[in-house]
Amino acid sequence: MKLEHIHITVNAKIDPSFKALPKDDAQRFVDKLLKAINMKPLGPINWADAEDLDFPGQSFVQMITTSHCSLHFFAHPDGTNEIYFDLYSCKCFDVNKVVKMLDDKFGLVEWHGVLYNRATDGKPEVTIIGSAMKEKQFMIAKCRN
What we know:
seven-stranded antiparallel sheet; 19% helix; globular
């Protein structure tokens, strides 16, 4: 099997009613995500509650075969909430499904990101994605299977 090296990042303002991401919820989200992208964990999730009270929230990192996913959630005192998500996979995956999973879990209000094909056998390709884009459907273009 040929590895692909697909990387997506999403920065988002989210539903202000979302208040916390406990470890059990983070684990359920990761389990669902890994099933959707057909990847397996390389050990337990690494989850942390913020120690810096200027930036309250939670973070996790999940190592997966030759890859990783991470998410940082921040609940700001002014009521705005944000997530910063990162997924690097050695397999192609449906970007729309991943963004929908983020929306279903966190209620994306406004978001932007980058889709990066880091394939080693060709020129890297970068696509800007986000809620302000006219085309809402994003596809992994030119996977090199």
